[in-house]
Structure formats: C-alpha cells, structure tokens
Write a structure and sequence with these properties.
The chain is of the alpha+beta class. It has one domain. 38% of the residues lie in helices and 15% in strands. It has a two-stranded parallel ribbon. The radius of gyration is 13 Å and the shape is flat. The model has no long low-confidence stretch (mean pLDDT 96).
Length: 79
C-alpha cells in the first residue's frame, strides 16, 4: 500500500495530524503537505511542535488539543 495512492482515491474529509519534531516520519510538515497534494476533498493539516507520540509521555495537553481539533474538523465536515 502506498499512502499517496490511497489518498488519491479517497474523496472524503481528511484530517492529518503531525508533530514537527517527529524523528520517525519526517520531514514534517513537508511530507504531510506532499501527501495532501494527492487528496481532492476537504482536508486539514494540524501541526504541533512535538515528537511522533505527540508528547503524550510528558503531558496530555497536546493530545487534548488534537482531540478538540479532530472533533471540530469532523463537525465542520458533517461527520
């Protein structure tokens, strides 16, 4: 499975969340932006200055922000 190929076939709402200090999937947000270029539909790129795990080992703050952003995106796209 190739992410770009899968994204290009998907027309529904796409919410992509990345950490700009991610050392596993990088470089971010450049990689995320390139993937979004294959998507034809409603989309949002959410970025935060955190690692791959969204800093959950230090605090729930970023995860709480991510949850709120995800819910807002889903509501704004009729989900």
């Amino acid at each position: 499975m190739q992410p770009a190929g899968e994204i290009s076939r998907y027309r529904g709402p796409l919410f992509l969340a990345v950490g700009t200090r991610d050392s596993i999937v990088f470089p971010q947000p450049a990689l995320a932006k390139s993937l979004l270029s294959y998507h034809d539909g409603p989309e949002e790129l959410w970025t935060e200055s955190v690692d791959h795990g969204f800093g959950v080992e230090r605090s729930a703050e970023t995860v709480n922000k991510l949850i709120s952003a995800t819910v807002a995106f889903l509501k704004s796209n009729g989900q």
